[in-house]
């Protein structure tokens, strides 16, 4: 049985993919069998490791086959069989065309393959097929269908005044595809040349930030023995803000407020010095205290609370 060119192309593209899928399946099964069913003896482990090496080699060969098989498969898949042209000549839409013109229409369209959206929207009679590209799975079928039979479908729609007009449109789309391909190659090249530099700059910047942070941390880190000194200074400050007699006033300010730091009620009127000051009276005697003292009282009292 003689295979057609498209069947050969399908084999070139499918065999590497199937091989890689089988290798990955066997590799996962091997790991599962080794883990759950076979005792981890030296002999069994060594045998499965050898089998894993073989699978790894087959996987590499499958990937190489994919790299080679896809372009070769597309080449064969895009070739037209002689009998296809003969069958089209009998069609009413091709009866006034030459054999070369019919063959041109029957050919695989690379512009439709590489820019399917643009191609379908720019050709008459196939714009409706653009909706098929939105389908999650079957869009692959519409993609190959447009590349393989897109020219036939748009020509058979009968919306072209002449073959010259049709061919001109296809040439324009082919040039657009070439321009887009060249721009894509340039963009990818620039991106690949820029990414290593960006990656390196990111590493250098992160290292610089880390060094700066480490330097600042070392600057503010207390030296040996300085923690005890700082604690002593804080304790000394708070001791000056204590209220030994419990009258609500800080000891170091009671003298300035005409009060005794050792007496809860300096003037002996039955009210504590703190209550008198809060009510607007002089804790050391009769009479209303000054505005300055009214402002000082809540400040001194709050400072004392912070150190309690």
In summary, what is this structure?
By secondary structure, the protein is an all-alpha fold. The protein is built from twelve helices and no strands.
Descriptive account of the structure:
The chain has helices spanning 5-36, 42-78, 82-89, 99-106, 110-114, 116-122, 139-156, 163-220, 226-239, 251-254, 273-279, 291-306. By secondary structure, it is an all-alpha fold. The longest helix is centred in the middle third of the chain and has 58 residues, at 163-220. The model is unreliable at 288-292 and 303-308 (pLDDT under 50).
Query: What would you call the shape?
Result: elongated
| Number of structural units classed as domains | 3
Helix tally?
12
Tell me the structural class: mainly alpha
In total, the number of strands is 0
Proportion of residues in extended strands = under 5%
Would you identify the regions where 5 or more consecutive residues have pLDDT less than 50?
Answer: 288-292, 303-308
Provide the helix percentage: 55-70%
Average pLDDT figure = 75
* Major sheet: none
- Cα Rg: 45 Å
Oligomer: single chain
Give the helices and strands as they follow along the chain. Answer: HHHHHHHHHHHH
First and last CA, distance: 101 Å
Q: How would you describe this structure in keywords?
A:
308 residues, mainly alpha, 3 domains, 12 helices, 69% helix, 0% strand, elongated, membrane, transmembrane helix, transmembrane
């Amino acid at each position: 049985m003689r295979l057609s060119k498209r069947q050969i192309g399908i084999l070139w593209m499918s065999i590497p993919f199937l091989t890689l899928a089988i290798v990955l399946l066997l590799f996962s099964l091997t790991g599962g069998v080794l883990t759950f069913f076979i005792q981890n003896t030296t002999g069994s482990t060594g045998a499965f490791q050898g089998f894993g090496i073989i699978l790894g080699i087959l996987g590499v060969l499958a990937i190489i086959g994919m790299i080679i098989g896809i372009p070769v498969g597309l080449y064969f898949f895009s070739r037209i069989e002689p009998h296809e042209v003969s069958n089209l000549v009998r069609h009413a839409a091709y009866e006034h065309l030459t054999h070369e013109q019919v063959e041109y229409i029957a050919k695989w369209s690379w512009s439709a393959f590489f820019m399917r959206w643009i191609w379908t929207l720019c050709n008459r009679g196939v714009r409706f097929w653009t909706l098929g590209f939105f389908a999650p799975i079957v869009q692959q079928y519409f993609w190959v269908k447009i590349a393989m039979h897109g020219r036939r479908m748009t020509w058979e729609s009968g919306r072209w005044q002449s073959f010259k007009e049709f061919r001109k449109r296809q040439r324009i789309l082919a040039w657009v595809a070439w321009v887009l391909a060249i721009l894509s190659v340039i963009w990818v090249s620039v991106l690949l040349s820029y990414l290593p530099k960006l990656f390196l700059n990111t590493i250098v910047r992160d290292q610089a930030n880390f060094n700066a942070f480490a330097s600042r941390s070392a600057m503010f880190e207390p030296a040996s023995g300085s923690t005890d000194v700082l604690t002593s200074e804080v304790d000394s400050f708070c001791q000056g803000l204590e209220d030994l007699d419990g009258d609500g006033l800080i000891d170091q300010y009671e003298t300035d407020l005409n009060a005794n730091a050792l007496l809860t009620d300096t003037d002996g009127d039955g009210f504590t010095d703190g209550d008198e000051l809060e009510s607007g009276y002089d804790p050391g005697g009769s009479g209303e205290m000054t505005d300055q003292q009214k402002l000082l009282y809540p400040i001194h009292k709050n400072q004392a609370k912070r150190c309690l």
